[in-house]
Amino acid sequence: MFSRAIFTRTPLRFTPTACSRRAYASAATDEPKRSNALVYSAIVGIAAGAGYYYYTTVSEDKAALGPPEITLKGDGEWVDLKLADIKSVTDNTKKFRFELPSENHVSGLKVASAVLAKYKAPTDEKPTVRPYTPVNDEDARGYLDLVVKRYDNGRLSKHLHSMAINQTLSFKGPIPKYEWTPNKHEHIALIAGGTGITPMYQLMRSIFRNPEDKTKVTLVFGNISEKDILLKEELENLENTYPQRFRALYLVDNAPLSSKRATQGRVTKELLKTVLPEPGSGNNKIFVCGPPGMYKAISGVKNSPSDQGEVEGILKELGYKKEEVYKF
Ligand SMILES: Cc1cc2nc3c(=O)[nH]c(=O)nc-3n(C[C@H](O)[C@H](O)[C@H](O)COP(=O)(O)OP(=O)(O)OC[C@H]3O[C@@H](n4cnc5c(N)ncnc54)[C@H](O)[C@@H]3O)c2cc1C
Ligand SMILES: *[C@@H]1O[C@H](CO)[C@@H](O)[C@H](O)[C@H]1NC(C)=O
Ligand SMILES: CC(=O)N[C@H]1CO[C@H](CO)[C@@H](O)[C@@H]1O
């Protein structure tokens, strides 16, 4: 369990061009041979074991408490939660901790699901409602953590970033997304852009904190500069603790690479062909979550929350079927 992750940093077989947010180009110009050598960059695990310690500590705490109370019951009720803490994550992203009604309350979320947040400015006719994926453990008591990126013209994200401690925000939910049960798939691949990491992290946490769940996880996290890797510590912790089952590939736009953590470039067909489980090769699933342009290039867009739409883009070109892909 404390074995160390020792991956060599191999150059990736794709053109390392700078790209903008919208540049999830779908076309790889020539057909590369499928390489068996999975190429990942990762760091050597120094703090392996921290995750295990955390897991046991949480379990013991839990045993001392009685059954939890549920905050968000899926009954359509809005619940006001008080902002208790704010931590800076990157230049434009913060982690917000909301207090649940008591120390004995849990959020009520199951994996994978989201909450809805609602805000109405005094001048607004209608409230703005947006979904967010909490990053705390589902059985954490007393709080709910959101990691939210601020958009300059973003109605809800801008409000959230302007909130002061002790102000409240209305929440309801949960909104079920993809119900996870242990070992539902043998291998899952998660392709995320920006804050699209949050539902992926929810899945990963649920898998790795359950000793019965043996699912292998490959993460491709793109469209970021190195300093913008959200949930970096949390992801490193998983990489170090589960080097056999968790592999992460970080792609950055055009930032100069100072560390071994990230690789320059973009998510291309050629790259995905090397790191994803082969189409039709078993009980595998590919999850996609990111900005609209990313869905378009990689998986095709969703028609609606209840209609996944057809698989398009790179994943279609690579031969994945509808049942092998889930768009968050
Ligand atoms: C299931 C689900 C879970 C989500 N979880 C999270 C989460 O954990 N953390 C988080 O920060 N966000 C998350 N989001 C996105 C979130 O719901 C909002 O879309 C986001 O906060 C922007 O809302 P807004 O009201 O601030 O911006 P809006 O008023 O909706 O948009 C304002 C401007 O921002 C731009 N913009 C908005 N969203 C994006 C985007 N994703 N990429 C590029 N440009 C964009 C728009 O083009 C527009 O110009 C999630 C979305 C879904 C569907
Ligand atoms: C928030 O509320 C608590 C309890 O009411 C109070 O002790 C604390 O000083 C408040 N914090 C701020 C920043 O207003
Ligand atoms: C979703 C997301 O994080 N998009 C970012 C991708 O990278 C560009 C350039 O660094 C940012 O401007 C986007 O906001």
UniProtKB/TrEMBL annotation:
Sites binding FAD sit at: R130, P131, Y132, V147, K149, S157, T198
Membrane topology listed for this record:
Single-pass membrane protein
Record localization: Mitochondrion outer membrane
Where exactly are the transmembrane stretches of this chain? Answer: 37-55
A GO molecular function term, named singly, is: cytochrome-b5 reductase activity, acting on NADH
Q: What is its main location?
A: mitochondrion
Q: Extract the PROSITE patterns matched here.
A: FAD_FR (PS51384)
What family name appears in the similarity comment?
Belongs to the flavoprotein pyridine nucleotide cytochrome reductase family.
The record's PANTHER family line, in alphabetical order, gives: NADH-CYTOCHROME B5 REDUCTASE, NADH-CYTOCHROME B5 REDUCTASE 2
Report the protein name in the record: NADH-cytochrome b5 reductase 2
Q: Which organism is it from?
A: Tuber borchii
